[in-house]
Amino acid sequence: MSSQQAKAPYYFVPGPSRWPVLAGVSLLITMIGASAWVNSAAWGPELTAIGILSVLVVLYKWFGEAIGESESGLYGERIDLSFRWSMGWFIFSEVMFFAAFFGALFYARTITMPWLGDLDHKILWPDFTAHWGNTGPAGTVESFRTMGPFPIPTINTALLLLSGVTLTISHHALRAGHRTQTAIWLFATVLLGAIFMGFQAYEYYHSYHELNLKLTSGIYGSTFFLLTGFHGFHVTIGAIMLSVVLYRVLKGHFTPEHHFAFEGAAWYWHFVDVVWLGLYIVVYWL
Prior knowledge:
Elements: H1 3-6, H2 19-38, H3 44-71, H4 77-116, H5 152-175, H6 179-209, H7 218-250, H8 260-285
Helix pairs in contact: 2-3, 4-7, 4-8, 5-6, 5-8, 6-7, 7-8
């Protein structure tokens, strides 16, 4: 047990906080702005930007307050256990989030597409071929080429797998009390994540301008961009989390025994790695 946990209260209960209400209001503003934006309202983009900025400010203040409580020794073993359960359930909700998109992809490929290509539907759509990446019944979608696993998706797979290794090395260094090595390997993890996102941005540019593969390219395009896009968003969030942890390491936070913020961010990053492996096989290979 660390010295901070030894002097912590039995169970710390924070006082009334304004941050949950402000977070809810900020998210409501963001959703109203986004809804107006997609419906071509002139004020939609500005309201969306205000909402996103408000969310970021609330998160910065709220997490800063929690960090201050942790560093002042108010968080003991029971709070640490609560955080672990909370992070575990949060990651489980993320698993269900991606399961919905993988389920939509499975339904489209395994059930709907063969059904549209059977003998009964040949009368309605005689030119339709039941292969993945088709242009829809009666050619309702512009022609496009599908995305293969080489070279960028395979490079990105190697980058994420390597980032999992560097993050694990960083964690072991922190547990051993080697703060410099912790920071170096953690920085390497964040850098690998940034390179991953750079390659994905190039992949999107390539798909739009050279393959004519877009979000509007039928069920193939919608599932491709939803799965890869939301995964890229999660990589970005994970990289931000690890960057904050890196900043805290450089500020002298954490001890070998007391560093749940590091562990929680690491759990999230490894979850993102696992999702990518499934996505890499199902979306790019099959």
